[in-house]
Specification:
Length: 260
């Protein structure tokens, strides 16, 4: 096991912080963090942040002390570095985590972001309606297992992921949305190694843009019966029960928790 920690030299929130990372695998990093009681909320996609008062404890548990530059270099060379833009929040990183790509090797990353991924090849919409309690739409697709958010691939005639999102929602469940009122929530990045394109996924980075839309009240849902077999308005608890294990679900949780 090679878990690394750099000295507490990074200021934030009135304290100094260290980074805890692995140059071997995220699985061993998560196992180490769980063993020493580092909370999951401290995970930043490729490392955990710990306050200076926990530095000695982490070293005593077996983390190797390295400088900040060395930790960054080893993380980069390992291929585990999580790419994100300023203002984005990593939510998940899973190897071979998307059923629509498996068994082709790939990495699935889920990122909360207020910025759109221009050129995204697909888009989905987290559709919510105000009420007591609030509800969201989930659909059961004829070609995919389980429940998910409405959406699909961007077509050339769409011109943008935003336009594709509006078209897909209208086609799948007969709900009309206004492009300008879609709010970016984040995206999924599906990365395939060179020479491993699969089905509708290209080698390299593929993006699925996730938007949110809020209606004043639930409206009738009319699934097309071909692509979408069933559509429902569900409470957060009901939606979590049927879709909580889906790779995209962390974005729904983020949306519910941050003003969705």
């Amino acid at each position: 096991m090679t878990v690394l920690v750099d000295p507490p030299r990074w200021p934030a929130h009135g304290r100094l912080w260290s980074h805890v990372a692995s140059d071997t695998s995220l699985a061993e990093l998560h196992a180490f963090a769980a063993a020493v009681g580092i909370p999951q909320r401290s995970f930043e996609g490729d490392h955990y942040d710990i306050p200076e008062e926990r530095y000695a404890e982490v070293v005593a548990a077996g983390a190797a002390e390295v400088g900040g530059t060395e930790l960054a270099r080893r993380l980069r060379d390992s291929g585990l570095r999580f790419r994100k833009r300023k203002g984005e929040r990593p939510l998940a990183r899973v190897e071979d985590g998307l059923a629509g790509v498996a068994p082709t090797p790939h990495v699935l990353e889920v990122v909360a972001s207020p910025m759109e991924r221009l050129g995204a090849g697909a888009s989905v919409v987290l559709l919510r309606a105000r009420g007591v309690p609030d509800r969201m739409v989930l659909v059961r697709n004829s070609t995919r297992e389980g429940w998910g958010a409405p959406g699909g691939k961007r077509e050339l005639s769409d011109g943008s992921a935003r336009a594709a999102a509006v078209r897909e929602v209208a086609e799948e469940i007969a709900v009309d949305l206004v492009q300008e009122r879609l709010a970016p929530v984040g995206y999924q990045r599906i990365t395939l190694p060179p020479g491993h394109g699969a089905r509708s996924w290209d080698e390299g980075d593929n993006y699925v843009q996730v938007y949110a839309a809020t209606l004043p009240a639930p409206v009738p849902l009319r699934p097309d019966g071909v692509e979408v077999l069933e559509a429902r308005w569900l409470t957060a608890e009901e939606a979590r029960a049927v879709a909580g294990s889906a790779p995209w679900w962390p974005l729904a949780e983020w949306w519910w928790a941050h003003g969705g």
